[in-house]
């Protein structure tokens, strides 16, 4: 539910940044609570569970060059399709 709220508000809480921060803070608290409970159960079974305290984020990907987007048709096909649609609209 919390992820949906943040996603629906364009990831930054554009319409209510205060509420977005509250929701994200609550999500962090719930995640930490889940980690603590997992650790407790793992300890009961003799499992050494190491909790992530400061995760490492991967580097951001390189920007995609226009015309080189995976899954998009080549420019010539796109241009031909655009011309065909325009011709149909002009009739």
Radius of gyration: 24 Å
Beta-strand portion reads under 5%
Question: What is the assembly state of the chains in this entry?
Answer: single chain
What is the overall silhouette? elongated
Major sheet summary line: none
Taken in chain order, the helices and strands follow as HHH
How many H/I helices? 3
* Beginning-to-end CA distance, first to last residue: 49 Å
Mean pLDDT: 77
Q: Indicate the structural class.
A: mainly alpha
Write a concise synopsis of the structure shown.
Helices cover 56% and strands 0% of the residues.
Description:
The protein has 91 residues and is mainly alpha-helical. It has a domain at 1-55. It contains 3 helices and no strands. Helix 1 (2-8) packs antiparallel against helix 2. The longest helix has 28 residues, at 17-44.
Strands, helices and their partners?
Blueprint: H1 2-8, H2 17-44, H3 75-90
List keywords for this structure.
91 residues, mainly alpha, 3 helices, 56% helix, elongated
């Amino acid at each position: 539910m919390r992820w949906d709220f943040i996603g629906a508000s364009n990831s930054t809480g554009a319409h209510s940044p205060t509420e977005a921060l509250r929701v994200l803070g609550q999500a962090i608290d719930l995640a930490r609570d889940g980690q603590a409970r997992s650790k407790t159960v793992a300890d009961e079974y003799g499992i050494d569970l190491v909790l992530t305290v400061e995760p490492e984020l991967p580097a951001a990907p390189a920007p995609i060059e226009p015309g080189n987007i995976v899954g998009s048709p080549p420019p010539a096909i796109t241009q031909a399709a655009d011309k065909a649609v325009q011709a149909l609209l002009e009739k």
